[in-house]
């Protein structure tokens, strides 16, 4: 097997000048050792291999190796080969340091206006696991062995189509499995041809924005709403209006408002407040979209985790051939690093968006998609969701009890729908949820401030508390520390 050392020496040899080949090779290997490209204990290529690579005689290479060994740069080990000497550092110390290069002028870095806007509004947490981080499932309880067994079986003789570029919007088996699951669990009306597999919700949102909006077009987003949607719109030059949310979901704007090209909603569990869009509001939104020729993007990010009452059916399935692009993800039901999501596209959009997706993103993870299809088909997916739904329900109840006992019922968010992976801890209007969040984060309590989810002036203050990735035993002392921080800030406001 070709070694990295061969490539390093070959590159250095090509940069040496002079007529005598043995001197060029000697200088090349010396420079690699002294500059650290060949570190102590690195194995030197066999003389025959290096001679063949550089088109030199083997005697030339042997002559150079003998010289390097005599000077202590390399040493031979019986039956093992030749290696850079451990004592080569002594040579580095004794070698006269080269004159320092003149200082280089610092590179001038100027982000685009869109890049600066994105950086200024970036909200992703640098840490994504621990006490109260919102939106992260308990990844320690995923049935990795079951999925690995399927992966191992498929990997023994993988089909060629799983190992090349994807031009069809995902593996056919996964799209078929999702069609059955979504029809049963979410009331989604679709065929496998309407499904496009993506690398999570962000890629899906970026795809629909790029392909369906021109710069300067208008979009509606929920207020408060998910920061990721707003950043994607900013990066694509799309203007947006933040539309208020109440206990029935998004409140459509007045008749004379500029018609939106896109309407982004989370109807089954509004993010972040938690309200559920009523049937009348859903019908109103669908009628508006048809009238204005808008597209509704339904982000169904965690609807599997509903802990009371009947599941909320999708907005997409409410009407035949509805103007709704349905987006889902495995990040909440399985684990975020899987980076797999899916879209259910209206039939007139499916072929075009699949082609654009293939050109922009070159979809992959096909072997994993095939394994996931069997994982769903064999019942592991539904069983895991049932198990986690029960677990998260208990953890949510534990967190609600802690809030009620240590702070009071008035601190529970008013739109709580007993669902999802987080809840809102409501704070007084004059509270500084940013300052509370900063101090909490410094103590490894990974809460998020509600005010950051508003595009305009915040009308509510609070904290997003995730309960999925912390067990009840660890939750109690962690929340006690958080409650102390909250009380301190409320008693001593800045």
From TrEMBL:
The keyword DNA-binding applies. PROSITE patterns: HTH_GNTR. Transmembrane segments: none annotated. Residues 19-87 form the HTH gntR-type domain. GO terms for molecular function: transaminase activity. Keywords: Aminotransferase, DNA-binding, Pyridoxal phosphate, Transcription, Transcription regulation, Transferase. CDD domains: AAT_like (cd00609), WHTH_GntR (cd07377). The keyword Cytoplasm does not apply. In the C-terminal section; belongs to the class-I pyridoxal-phosphate-dependent aminotransferase family. This is PLP-dependent aminotransferase family protein.
């Amino acid at each position: 097997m070709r070694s990295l050392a061969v490539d390093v020496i070959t590159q250095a040899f090509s940069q040496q000048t002079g007529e005598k080949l043995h001197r060029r090779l000697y200088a090349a290997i010396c420079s690699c050792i002294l500059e650290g490209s060949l570190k102590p204990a690195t194995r030197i290529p066999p003389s025959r291999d290096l001679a063949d690579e550089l088109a030199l005689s083997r005697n030339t290479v042997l002559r150079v190796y003998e010289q390097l060994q005599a000077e202590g740069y390399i040493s031979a080990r019986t039956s093992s080969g030749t290696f850079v000497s451990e004592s080569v550092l002594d040579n580095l110390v004794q070698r006269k340091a080269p004159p320092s290069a003149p200082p280089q002028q610092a590179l001038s870095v100027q982000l685009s206006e869109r890049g600066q806007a994105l950086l200024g509004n970036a909200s992703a947490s640098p840490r994504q696991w621990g006490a109260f981080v919102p939106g992260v499932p308990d990844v320690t309880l995923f049935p990795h062995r079951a999925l690995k067994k399927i992966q191992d079986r498929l990997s023994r003789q993988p089909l060629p189509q799983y190992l090349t570029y994807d031009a069809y919007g995902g593996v056919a088996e996964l799209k078929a499995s999702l069609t059955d699951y979504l029809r049963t669990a979410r009331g989604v009306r679709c065929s496998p041809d309407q499904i496009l597999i993506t690398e999570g919700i962000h890629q899906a949102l970026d795809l629909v924005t790029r392909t369906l909006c021109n710069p300067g077009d208008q979009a509606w987003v929920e207020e408060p709403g998910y920061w990721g949607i707003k950043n994607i719109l900013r990066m694509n030059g799309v203007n947006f209006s933040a539309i208020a949310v109440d206990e029935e979901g998004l409140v459509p704007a007045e008749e004379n408002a500029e018609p939106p090209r896109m309407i982004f909603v989370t109807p089954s569990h509004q993010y972040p407040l938690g309200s559920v869009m009523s049937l009348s509001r859903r019908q109103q939104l669908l009628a508006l979209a048809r009238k204005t020729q808008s597209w509704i993007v339904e982000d169904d990010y965690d609807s599997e985790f509903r802990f009371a009452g009947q599941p909320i059916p999708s907005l997409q399935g409410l009407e035949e051939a509805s103007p709704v692009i349905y987006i889902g993800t495995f990040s909440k039901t399985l684990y975020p690093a899987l980076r797999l999501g899916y879209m259910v596209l209206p039939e007139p959009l499916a072929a075009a968006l699949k082609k654009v997706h293939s050109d922009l993103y070159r979809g992959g993870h096909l072997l994993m998609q095939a394994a996931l299809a069997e994982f769903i088909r064999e019942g592991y997916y539904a069983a895991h969701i049932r198990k986690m739904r029960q677990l998260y329900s208990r953890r949510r109840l534990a967190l609600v009890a802690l809030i009620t006992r240590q702070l009071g019922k008035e601190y529970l968010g008013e739109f709580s729908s007993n669902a999802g992976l987080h809840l809102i801890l409501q704070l007084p209007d004059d509270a500084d949820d940013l300052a509370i969040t900063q101090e909490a984060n410094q103590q490894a309590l990974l809460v998020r401030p509600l005010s950051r989810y508003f595009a305009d002036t915040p009308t509510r203050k609070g904290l997003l508390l995730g309960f999925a990735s912390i067990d009840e035993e660890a939750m109690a002392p962690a929340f006690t520390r958080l409650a102390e921080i909250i009380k301190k800030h409320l008693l001593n406001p800045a």
